[in-house]
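G., the chain you wanted modeled:
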Amino acid sequence: KIQIIKEELQIILLTLTRVVSAYGIVYTITEYGFDITMCEGPSMMPTIQPKGEIILLEKFTHRLKGLDGGDVLASERRLKHLSLQREWMSQQKKKKKKKQRGEEEH
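Predicted structure as tokens:
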């Protein structure tokens, strides 16, 4: 009976170790390697469109070489990010419905 409990505890510990390791790997990759974000606002025009263009961020080159002229910088507004994303998606749905209604009338 004690042997069974030991084996179950080992399985639980192994699973917990794997989950924590996976979280650590994902955190490290998104914090120091790559991340995906959505561009909002006209500040990056004409290079990046303000309509919610999805961007892959590479985060390690500047740590090795520093920043140069022409580099694109990204900043996050962590508190507003989700609300802005929801607002943008809502606007896109409204535009799509409006466009569909306009096509149905013609």
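The longest strand covers residues 51-58.

Shout if anything looks off.
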